[in-house]
Amino acid sequence: MRVLCAFPEAMPSSNSRPPSCLAPVALFLALLLHLFLSSQAGDRRPLPVDRAPGLKEKTLILLDVSTKNPIRTVNENFLSLQLDPSIIHDGWLDFLSSKRLVTLARGLSPAFLRFGGKRTDFLQFQNLRNPAKSRGGPGPDYYLKNYEDDIVRSDVALDKQKGCKIAQHPDVMLELQREKAAQMHLVLLKEQFSNTYSNLILTEPNNYRTMHGRAVNGSQLGKDYIQLKRLLQPIRIYSRASLYGPNIGRPRKNVIALLDGFMKVAGSTVDAVTWQHCYIDGRVVKVMDFLKTRLLDTLSDQIRKIQKVVNTYTPGKKIWLEGVVTTSAGGTNNLSDSYAAGFLWLNTLGMLAHQGIDVVIRHSFFDHGYNHLVDQNFNPLPDYWLSLLYKRLIGPKVLAVHVAGLQRKPRPGRVIRDKLRIYAHCTNHHNHNYVRGSITLFIINLHRSRKKIKLAGTLRDKLVHQYLLQPYGQEGLKSKSVQLNGQPLVMVDDGTLPELKPRPLRAGRTLVIPPVTMGFYVVKNVNALACRYR
């Protein structure tokens, strides 16, 4: 509504009447005041106010990395694997001769391969060569056992292109294997939940009380390790073998006491001190549990407790996390083997390396349950693809990360935990797609909103390659399939691994991290001094 009025150039005199146009103006102002007061009486919501142009920029995170010296250097085999002795039960060991499985394992090389788990306590050794041949009578068990004695040997180096001798299985035999795997899966789960195991024939210290009905103290365990070392030294093949232990569980009060007694007696005997970690134990698990920062941070406290005891007796001794799982009792279906579990796994890798743990062994590469990297049909699960990207892109040198604008102002009595986690390493020097001096970031965004990161300092205006890993399919966070930069990740028809193609981002572009995702970002040609030499 517009009111038009022509005012005279000069007022005639004080006795003159006001111009006739002032009447409608007064009427309009009265009407406007009435409408304003009415609205204030009914709806008291504030009128929308435009934000200042620079206000949104407060959410921008500035990121820089110290490139002169690494803060840690971990083992070349930092991410390693475990096989549970349960695979021996009625022919599981023969599955390792699968060409597809060997291809998946080779993708995660170089790595240590640990053979251990609960069933190690129930193994019996018998000096009989291939007892399956003495059973007689050809049948499924006979063929499953009777391939060749050298199908799998403990000294096979998966990181060498020669690989290991692979038996060529007919399709019918592979089906027999999978059928037996399904049967044994139920048997092994029953054993785990009942906590009752049967002995096996084969050519956790602080869990002994629960599983064996007896206890072993730290001092006695240390003496046993010393005796074991003495027994191994005269044997040529074992004279230079490394010894690791005591492989304790969660470092609570009684476990710390066991470790203290062990280190006091045998700290110098072992090549590395080992322990195991389970994030979720003995309760119902929900998908949102994997996004809780409090759960992610439980590992950091355990690391400090272990380091305190170790450094008291043997300062600088290497420490290994020799077994890590998301949930106990074989894991939780559709959760431990889903995309959501990857947040725990990737954060574990970043946190361990940052705090100086030399090696982490993932339980398990392939077997029963749901904590593994490869399922019973030899299909890679989300954590496998995450591990593959880690192996391809991340080197052993850990770099310090500096951020601005990340932390909110803490409120009294409230702990602010980071839902945006950023780790930095020198890029793997074995990756010939990137020159030495490049840096790889891996980022976890647990926020329900996207986050913007601006590379600053030595990273400013550098070309970036993005490897964004997201769930694929309708299941969302529960999906057992993933996509890389929008393309689903699956093995090629010929049984080989797919090419991991990055998405190039133009130099100087702000990184936009989608909500509830994780990814790797290679910053090229940084010429970082810490990363130019091995």
From TrEMBL:
Q: Tell me which positions the record assigns to the signal sequence.
A: 1-41
Keywords on record: Signal
| The organism of origin for this protein | Molossus molossus
What is the name attached to this protein's record?
Heparanase 2 (Inactive)
- Report which superkingdom the organism of origin falls in: Eukaryota
Q: Name one GO biological process term.
A: extracellular matrix organization
**Cellular component terms, GO, for this chain's entry?**
extracellular matrix; extracellular space
